[in-house]
Structure formats: structure tokens, C-alpha cells
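re the bet — no i am not wrong, look at it urself. input seq straight from the record:
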Amino acid sequence: MPSQQQDPVMRSKLAAVVAVALFAVGGIAQAQKGGPAQAAPESRFPPKETATDQPPPDWRAEPRYGTLNLQVGFEPDPREVAVEAGGSREATSVGPSCAGWIDFSRPDVDLNYAPGQQQQYPLYISAVSNADTTIVINDPQGNWHCNDDLEGLNPGVVFQRPLHGNYNIWVGTLDRGPLQRATVRISEVPPRR
């Protein structure tokens, strides 16, 4: 009889040890994949925290149309990048003020920006198109900023005291449909009306 009583006790102890081991291995595997435990080894910037039920747009992916490296007082101003706006997923899951359809798989443009110690100029990130477009931006602290109509149907976000670091930019279309030609504009002066 004593051996029968020890078997269930031993089994429960063994089950607890196995559960702890599996949990530890799972955490290691997740960390090695660049999960929330740590940033991917190739990341140039510290991990950005996002709070959402759905996976956010992949700000870590290589941008589709390139990366701009700018510092305060850059010339020429505005700096422009031609893109095709739109995508297959609705941006409403990103935040309450987000609209339009974007490609969640990677940003359209990345901006690495150094505002200088005085942060003397605001930073304008906008898009210009003949179509009704939207803009989604992930700032250096991992905050999401969205806009639909800053200037007419053209979207844009104004950072009055821009942060140093990486801005990920998506240009969307308000309605689902084919991609539309657009231009991302980066400027330190207000858009011309």
C-alpha cells in the first residue's frame, strides 16, 4: 500500500517538474524569436511596446520604399519619397483615430531623425496623392499616430517636439481597393496651402 500512495505523489511532482521545464523552454524559444522578452538581435533601436489585441503593423520589417536618415535643418526640405498607398488590412485596429487600408507586413518608409538638443523645429510627416489617403506612424517610443485629412484629403501628423529615433510610416487608402500613387513628405516647415 505505501508504494501505491507514493506513485501518485511522485507522478504529481514529476508533472510539476515537466511543466516548469516546458515553460522555461517556451520562454527561451520565444526570446530567441525576438518575442516580447527581448528585441530581435538585428534591431537598431530598443523594443517598442504596443498594447493591442491584434498584432500591430510590423514596424521591425524593412521598409518597402527605403529609409531616410535626417537631422535638424536638413536640406532639401521637404524630403520626398514616392510610394504606392494602400494594403489589405484595415488600420482601425491600430488605434482609435486610425483609418484606411495599409500593408501590415512592413512600413512604406522609415525615418531616422535627429532633432538636435533644442528641438527647435516641429516635424511634419505627410502624404500627398490624388486619391483619398491616410497615414499611420509609429514613433520612436512605440506610440501610434494616425490622420486622415490634414490638408484637404491629404493626411499628415505634426510632431511639435519631435523625438530622436526611428519613425515608421505607412500610407493607406481610405477605401479598400487598388494601390494608389502617393508621395511621403518629411518637412520642418508647415505644408504650403
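see?? The longest strand covers residues 165-173. told u. also The two ends are 90 Å apart (CA to CA). so pay up
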